[in-house]
Amino acid sequence: PKTDVVFLKVHKSASSTVMNILFRFGETHNLTFAFPMGGGNQLFYPRHFLARFVQGFSPRRPQRFNILCHHMRFLQPEVQKVVSRSAVYFSILRNPVQLMESSFVYYKGASAFSRAHSLEEFLSHPYLYYNPANKDSHYARNLMTFDFGFNPNGEVSAKRVQLMLEAIEASFDLLLISEYFDESMVLLKEMLCWDLDSVVSFPLNSRDSSTKSPLPDTIVEKIKNWNRLDWEIYTHFNRTFWERIDRDIGRERMQQEVKALRQRQAELARTCLQGTGSVAPKDIKDSSLRPLQHGSAKILGYNLKQGLDKETERMCRRLVTPELQYSSALYKKQFPQKHP
């Protein structure tokens, strides 16, 4: 199994679920994480990543960390200073239409969104609300482009798009697609030579469907135009994602692998969870398992079954621990003398 991994955690793209997978693998195999200085949950985002943002990094005697997975704005030369040269780089993308809708609800407090009553209102006159100079403007336009380190307000020329795609391809070994999460996990498992249980997960940081609403086609087109760079990235890598499946795995075997993954997930849900799945924040009984509530989204969580044996309880708890709590626990383990 490969143990040196860089995951670019793109916002609102099922990336918290992927992070939980990396946390569990790292904890089980005693790997080191490149934590933000002082144990925060972002690597000084939205600034471009610098090696010195990592706790325990020193340019004089550079220490290599196994896993880099906290939110950052990608800058490869700096990333290379904190991980080994053989590290595997991957990220996850989401359809920019759903991404924008999710961001609007989750980052409602951001300067571009706070005065718009609806996404529709924002999109009808974006420049009434959006000012690229504001330091939180990246949440409102081409968020994936921004997280990959590029200018979200750059012109959309064929040449520029091509250079951006080539740069991403040169840096990353695999780009997952959140709409095909299970297929993505199978590809990840194959690339990292991990076993099935290492990539099984329950959805984390997902929001209650009561705050979701279907978008009319006119809005969909406006979102694509407003986030044209994200749209170009997404459509390109959605295509290469399926090309890779056809080349490396084949559709038939992929179906079998996905089936096995879902069966294992259902089995773990029966073992671990009260009820069959996620619950509203107010119904989470154990406050240490309550995810951070943000914007006007209701972020769901889980209740563990009572009376599990110690070993099972530990495994189940890891699967449902929200990212902030898990990150903090791992930080305390890696730096026992420093408390965030």
Any overview of this molecule?
Belongs to the galactose-3-O-sulfotransferase family. It is found in: Golgi apparatus membrane. One of its GO terms (cellular component) is Golgi membrane. The protein is mainly α and 340 residues long. It has one domain (5-334): Rossmann fold. The protein contains 14 helices and 4 strands. A 4-stranded parallel β-sheet has the order 2-1-3-4, sandwiched between helices. Helix 1 (15-28) packs parallel to helix 14 (323-334).
Would you spell out the secondary-structure blueprint of this structure?
Elements: E1 5-8, H1 15-28, E2 67-68, H2 76-79, E3 88-93, H3 96-106, H4 119-124, H5 126-129, H6 143-147, H7 158-171, E4 174-177, H8 181-192, H9 196-199, H10 217-226, H11 228-248, H12 251-272, H13 310-320, H14 323-334
Parallel strand pairs: 1-2, 1-3, 3-4
Helix pairs in contact: 1-14
CATH topology: Rossmann fold
Q: Number of domains in the coordinates?
A: 1
- Low-confidence segments, given as residue ranges, are none
The strands making up the biggest β-sheet line up spatially as 2-1-3-4
Mean pLDDT across residues: 95
Helix content: 40-55%
Helical segment count: 14
Distance between the termini: 31 Å
Name the beta content range. under 5%
Extended strand count: 4
Q: SSE order, as H and E?
A: EHEHEHHHHHEHHHHHHH
Name the descriptors:
340 residues; mainly alpha; Rossmann fold; four-stranded parallel beta sheet; globular
What is the structure about, briefly put?
Belongs to the galactose-3-O-sulfotransferase family. By secondary structure, the chain is mainly α. It has a single domain (5-334), classed as Rossmann fold (3-Layer(aba) Sandwich), CATH 3.40.50.
